[in-house]
Design a protein that fits this description.
six-stranded parallel β-sheet; Rossmann fold; Dihydrodipicolinate Reductase, domain 2; 323 residues
């Protein structure tokens, strides 16, 4: 039986989602919506790069949601920026779609996010956030070693080339998954008192410095993204008698206590999305965080960054200019 999918947005991330869909084990009918015809062209070239069975996986291109042929699709992937996310979701819900894989950030304001949650509830729909580190087999093996009876301490040090605003949600989600707790408190006291350019657009900003998050059981995570450096992304995971050090850039991992190397592979959207989509379509669920649970993390991030912008510019924003 053919499975029907929709991808909204076929830019850099959306085109990688499309590559992943060619790896699905069942036949697919995929409709893509993006108003930019140049994005269509680039996405098609990326599909051609991977090569795929064109009889098994069929792709159809549109410039607006109103052109979609299928209703009530098996899965909709929303890969646009966070701007106007609620309006896009509402249009898709009105077409009887009920399962969504949504790129982070889900929304740029708490108010918008609350509206999105209301819509999902009203239409009895389900959504998952594509904070996909938990689909890396390497991170799953590390999670298996965590002793939940003891506090967990995670430390990330990276170059701001990777971007703190862009990556905070990924690492907070990983931390929350490790400790099975989304209700954490975020501290932005150690952010650098400067706003940085965002490669995603002139109306966006980036941040640098350190964020610290804690939960009620004394587990914590610190994220330090340093400006003007090209250091590798490193992660330290300490829990009980475990101390694991990961160099994500070099894809190496070392168990310091056992004095042994472990395998670590950084996986890309073109790989993880095929696993996620397959789980949602065939099992009616996946291990990604739900949109409901990710709200707690998004709320903390939006508030911290907007408070920092206000501190530096004396401007009070509702929309957080990250995506």
């Amino acid at each position: 039986m053919v499975k029907n999918l929709v991808v909204i947005g076929c830019g850099n991330i959306g085109s990688r989602h499309l590559q992943a869909l060619t790896k699905l084990p069942f036949n697919t009918h995929v409709e893509i919506v993006d108003p930019d015809l140049n994005s269509h062209k680039i996405a098609q070239s990326r599909l051609d790069e991977v090569g795929y069975d064109k009889q098994k996986h069929e792709f159809y291109w549109h410039t607006s949601i109103s052109e979609l042929e299928q209703k009530n699709n098996d899965l909709v992937i929303i890969a646009t920026t966070a701007i106007d996310r609620v309006s896009i979701l509402e249009q898709l819900l009105l077409l009887n779609n009920s399962k969504f894989l949504i790129e982070k950030m889900v929304c740029q304001s708490v108010k918008e996010y609350e509206k999105l949650l209301e819509l999902l509830k009203k239409f009895n729909a389900r959504g998952w956030v594509n904070t996909c580190l938990r689909y890396f087999s390497s991170w799953r093996k590390i999670k298996e070693q965590i002793d939940m009876s003891k506090p967990l301490y995670v430390s990330i040090i990276a170059s701001n080339v990777s971007a703190l605003g862009t990556n905070t949600i990924h690492y907070l989600d990983l931390f929350s998954w490790f400790i099975d707790d989304y209700k954490i408190k975020l501290d932005g006291s150690f952010l650098i008192n400067e706003l940085f350019p965002n490669k995603r657009g002139a109306d966006m900003v980036e941040f640098a410095g350190t964020l610290i998050a804690k939960n009620s059981n004394n587990s914590s995570i610190s994220l330090t993204f340093l400006p003007d450096t090209k250091i590798p992304n490193t992660v330290s995971v300490v829990n009980g008698h475990n101390h694991i050090f990961i160099n994500e850039t070099d894809q190496t991992c070392f168990d310091i206590i056992k004095n042994q190397e472990l395998e670590f592979e950084f996986e890309h959207v073109s790989s993880t999305t095929s696993k996620i989509a397959s789980d949602i379509i065939l099992k009616d669920d996946c291990i990604l965080t739900t949109v409901e649970n990710s709200f707690y993390l998004h709320r903390e991030i939006i508030n911290i960054f907007n408070n920092h912008i206000k501190k530096l510019t004396n401007k009070e924003l509702e929309q957080c200019p990250i995506t």
